[in-house]
Amino acid sequence: MPRHGYRILGGSSLIMELAYDFGKTRYVEFGIGRDVGDDQIFQTVPVGDKAQDVMRDVAADTWSEMQKSVQGQPSQMKFEPTVNVDDISAFAPVSDEETMRNRLEGGPALFEIAEKYAGTEYVYLPTDDEKVMVIRNLHVAHLDMTTDIFYDVPSIFCYFVRMMDEGGNRLTAIKRATTFKGLAHKGNLLGLSANVLDIMDDNVFKLDSSFDMLVDDTRVHIWRANSFEAIGKLRDEILSSVGENIDTIKHDLNYVDFGPIGQYASQHISGARYLASIRAQLTPDPINKLSLIKLCNDTGVRVSEKDGMIVVDPNHVIGFLEVLDRRRYGIELIDGRLEQFRAASRQRINRQ
Amino acid sequence: MPLRRFNNKEGFKFGRFVMVVSSISPLFILWAVKGVAIIPDIILIPICAAIVILSSGFVLLRVLVAKRTRDMRLMKVGTISNYDYHALTYIFAMLLPFYRQDISSVRELAAILIAIAFIVGIFWYLNLHYMNVIFIFGRYKTFLVHPPDDANPLAGSVPYILVTRRSHLVPGEELMGCRVTDTVYLEAVR
């Protein structure tokens, strides 16, 4: 069944809505995440009303930046509390071509594990995706509270703000704590006290000017993919799922010897990422063996055949994975000259 | 459940102490009315009045400040225990023994004050500062609430005291509490 994009009845294009109204914020809560051994502990910390207002504004500014980055125009935050963007009955289908044009013009892409993203780039994931499990749990959990934020400051790896609006919609904004804890014990901040500028004795935390991701009740809107992967502990998840991914891919590619590939990927995060991405792209139609061998030869990936199985040269495992992940290709625009390319990022044009 | 190797010490030390003093203010009221043989009324009554007014005023001020600065917390309800019966404990532990005592010497006064200090210390240590006649006369009920034991691995486990005018709570519901101390919340009703 062809995949369609959707347009809200009435004519305006669906870019990406945030299921939250900043103007009707009813409740703001701040918290920190700590690394405790192998675990992550999240706690809320009481903050004053001025800090709450600033945090809400930073979250709103972050959304604004994310919208600008995909629309190329001043942000228009839209809020449709009664429209569930996953309920297709509320929308009229449009053609695939228009969907892609809409996305290229102003829509964020779905986050892909093997893609390389810029420092700030708006991508998203639905909250039911297994990659956002930690973040989804944080969004809805009842957390313990602490007032002792200065205990073991180096263990703080992130901070977050959870909000609720008048309609009961929730938003969680999360930021990896780098500069946040940097000033905690610096002792080189000046402040005015009794009409004299002097060193501030109080410990200080600094809020960043934007968050790394915003989580509403349906989607995780990612602004910094690196931070998302660090906070969501995706690296560990990716490495631990190598075996499972290979087992799944083997079903379709039963003519490939995955021994050396599995060995490589379990020790190299790049290989593990490609495996996760390849698994996500599997279709009911299998990859043609001869086409695979041809593309490997055309792009300089050394493979051989033994007992009907494709065996990959141990030094070319990553190249082979790039081929399977559709990142390696050859183009012959000039007669007799085959140019080989590797794509750090690629987008499919035709969907079938 | 991960091993929680982090410091969760409770704040508001002074505030909790004042709240405990406020919780024994009925005793000072009774003493002011009954009188103490070895202390002239001109000294006793102002001291008792000051303790009662200042400590109770602190509690009210704390609630006011918490509401004004939006010091709120969104909490979930798991299992609930009704702590209203603690009022009985409070009456029998606090008021009756000391009220009935006739203080006729300095040594007796010193002994009673030390006993009260012990009780205040124990109440403070055990976080029993929610026992307050302000809440009782305000027709508030007191519940000990444990967070829900759901499948969320990040969920907290520290129980909290909820002071509310409602007669019962519903397990699983979400409510907003105004933070009186780190463990005592006054339900914020819209």
**Biggest interface found:** A-B, 34 and 32 residues
Mean pLDDT of chain B, rounded to whole units? 85
- Residue-averaged pLDDT of chain A: 80
Low-confidence stretches of chain A: 1-14, 73-104
Low-pLDDT residue spans of chain B = 1-6
What is the molecular shape of chain B? elongated
Distance between the termini of chain B: 35 Å
**Spatial strand order of the main sheet of chain A:** 5-6-13-12-9-8-2-3-7
Which radius of gyration of chain A do the C-alpha atoms yield?
24 Å
Q: Could you state the oligomeric state of the chains shown?
A: heterodimer
Strand order of the largest sheet of chain B: 1-5-6-4-3-2
Distance between the termini of chain A: 8 Å
The biggest beta sheet of chain A is recorded as: 9 strands, mixed
Structural class of chain A: alpha+beta
Shape of chain A: elongated
Overview of the molecule:
- The complex is a heterodimer of chains A (352) and B (190).
- Chain A has 352 residues and is of the alpha+beta class.
- A nine-stranded mixed β-sheet of chain A has the order 5-6-13-12-9-8-2-3-7, with helices on both faces.
- In chain A, strand 10 and strand 11 form a beta hairpin.
- The radius of gyration of chain A is 24 Å and the shape is elongated.
- The two termini of chain B are 35 Å apart.
- Chain B contains six helices and six strands, in the order αααββαααββββ.
- In chain B, helix 2 runs antiparallel to helix 3 and helix 2 packs parallel to helix 4.
- Chain B is elongated and about 60 Å long.
- A six-stranded mixed β-sheet of chain B has the order 1-5-6-4-3-2.
